[in-house]
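Cross-posting from the modeling subforum.

Setting up a comparison between two proteins and wanted a second pair of eyes on the formatting. Protein 1 (sequence, then structure tokens):
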Amino acid sequence: MATILPTPRLWLVLALGIPLALGGAVIPGLERFVFFFDVGLLTVWYLTGRQARTWEVARVTRVTDPVLSVRVKNVVTLEIENLSGSSMTVAIRDEPPENCHAEGNEFRIFLPRRERLKKKYALTPTSRGEWEFRGLFIRYPALLGLAQVQKMILPPTPVRVYPNVKAIEEFELLKQTGHLNHLGMRQSRQKGLGMEFESLRDYNEDDFRKIDWKASARRGKLVVRNFEQETNQGVVVCVDVGRHMLGEVEGVRKLDHCLDAALLFLHSAERAGDQVGLLTFNDRVESYIAPRRGKTQVARILESLYDAQAEPVQPNYIEAFSFLASRWKKRSLVVVFTDAENVDQAGMLTVALSQIRRRHLVYVVRVSDPKLREFLAADIDGERELFDQSAALWYIGDRKRAEAALRGAGLNSLEAEPQNLAKELVTAYLRVKRLSLI
């Protein structure tokens, strides 16, 4: 629906009639002239505006990335085509989804006759899930410039917001250029380690432990064995979507930090040629995707995770890992995202994981809060600082005892702050592959 609005020019012309109306006190009948003048002016305003409502002045196409990432800037491109027979200046406002902060989504732009222009702005979603652009509006002048018309030219459009997919793009770029260390990922410089024999080659000041003595005796010179990294191994990510993941770290729920790390980790495993799968659970199993290879598998997992939300219920670890044990027998790397804050919670987790620990290599991944480190480093100037530091020490002590309980049960424990979680996990995965632990 189009709306007719006044312009500053209309208000200016109407204002010119004020002195004339006041002059009616000196010249009888002048105020009547002003009245008819104003009525005529408003009639012209309405008629020109009504005519302009029928105009199709521009066509706008909104182009976004195929996948919008949460908590990072996404680029939205508006392709604007002037359909009118003349140049004009228009105002455009693209109404973003409710969960998004937009920068530059409202602007004025000069459109040359029959030309196409592009305008970009930044969109930062604050939460995942299904949302919608609330329409794109254009405002343009009518004839004589007394009226302007505002109309919606793009209807509300649904859009999905996913975990931070842009981190994968950064990962791939750094991987291609050999600069993964910029993300803090430590790749081993040892080559030729693995489980699958590939070939023999001449010894060239390599590690003497890689010398194949029998082959060297046959050839009459030192040769070493090359091994290629084993592929097609199983990797299963288990995500707790119960009450433990409702807590926030740096204003973001722990679940979201874990999903960002899980996505980058699964992408890394898929690129390494491994089978990747997913299990989400709270007081019951919410979703299960059996491990498979290929980019389409990561896409399936992404579709399953984009709207996952933590529920205020106690996670049923025993049911979740019993389910996994019955569905997936092949030895695999199982990564469990949850949060054991004390020894009791760690005990429940270790009992449940005993069902799969003998068959699989298990990592328990937790998110730590940088504020705890800040509390410990802060100067104590009063009772408030003393209380904060004491509480932080107590909480950290509980978490360390929980970690000791996990390790004591034969589980691998990984805890990192949000900005380091993904790189620490990928580094651990690369180490597991290098040492052939699965």
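Protein 2 (same layout):
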Amino acid sequence: MRIHLKQTTSSKIAAELVRVREEGGVVALGRVLTLIVMAHGQDHAENAIAATNEASREHPSRVIVVDTNPPPLPDGGSPDSLDAEIRVGADAGASEVVLLRPRGRAGAELDTLVSPLLLPDTPIVAVWVGTTPENPSGEPVGRMASRRITDIIGAGRARESLRHLAANYRAGDTDLAWARITLWRALLASVLDGKTDRVRSVVIEGDLSRPSVDLMAGWLRATLGVPASTLHSDAPHIESIRVDLGEEELFIHRPQGATSATIHWTGHRVQTTSLPVRQVSDCLMEDLRRLDADEVYARALAAAVQGGA
């Protein structure tokens, strides 16, 4: 169900949420957090809602999506106005979604805008899609949140954005690029179990316009204390990782478009293992499982920048 509110206020939206819950017999007690999504434009807003609907199966939430670049109003509309849309039921997964379209002065103070809509006594998570602030914890909404999730793939200039995130890192920050390489990190940890002291160097090949490649290199530098370099390829994600162990070499390759990877060890038979490209909803679900500081990410981010990202 979708309810449209034109020329409204945050307090009126909050009252409408109460009315919808009372009439529908829905309670807010099952919501485990408030998720505030800053989306730059309608497409990013809808994509974010689709991802949060999927994530709500594991993390029922109140989702507040703020379209920071809403479509223009027809002639005669107020330049300083707030339109909203409430989605519940099948249109919101296991959550309730509030889509806000502030224009002009209505969006000047975003923390004030969303405050009446926050669930009481629940953690606040802030997410940015389509654009990434240089200092997430310094943003009005970022200061309210205990967890801040960026997605610098959508913002462009990945390496420049990584440098900003590293310089301004605060406990609770993370980027979806980190969750995108979880399966790669788990695979490497498993394959190199008991052999990490023999690793001399690593080469990661992938699209260098994506931060996952540099974060993987940073994680390997921070974890193994060895040189980790990057090479560009046309694959949209990490394509391969080559590990020099002296007398042995490990080569893991996932061709573009594949959902599995081949593992090549010197002197051993080639093995195949599942390694799908992760969807945004999967990454978001992972990031919402922990609301404390991710110290491993912090070290990987710092090492990625120090290594030349």
